[in-house]
Amino acid sequence: MRPDTPKTPNAPQPNQPKQHKQDPRFKTAHKEAWIGVALAIFNFIWWFGFAYGLGGRPVEEYTYILGLPDWFFWSCVVGFILMSIITVVLAKFVLTDMPLDDDRAYHPNPPNFHDQKGPNS
Fold it and tell me: In angstroms, rounded to a whole number, what is the distance separating the alpha carbons of residues 107 and 112?
C-alpha cells in the first residue's frame, strides 16, 4: 500500500475535487416514477382482464350496459373513469410539487458557462 493511500476504502482521496451532495429531489422523482409505472401496470391489467376476460365469450352471450358490450363498458368506460379518479387523487395527495430550479446547496461550484467562449467568439 502506498503511504499516501487512505486506510479506509471510502475515505476521500487526496487532491480530488469536492463531491456534490445528492439532491433529495432525485429520490422523490424516483419514487413518483415508480408510482406512475405501477399505475400504468394496474391500468393494463384492468383493461386486459375485462376486455379479454369478458370479451372472450361468443357474441351471442354478451350482455349490454348502456348499449355497450359489458366487456367494453368495464374495460374502457369504467377503466377510464377509475384511472382518472386515481390519477387526480395521486396528484393531489401523494405526488410532491417541487421547484426545478438549480439549488446551490447541492452544487456549490456550478460551472459558469457564461464566461466560456463559443466557437464563433
Answer: 12
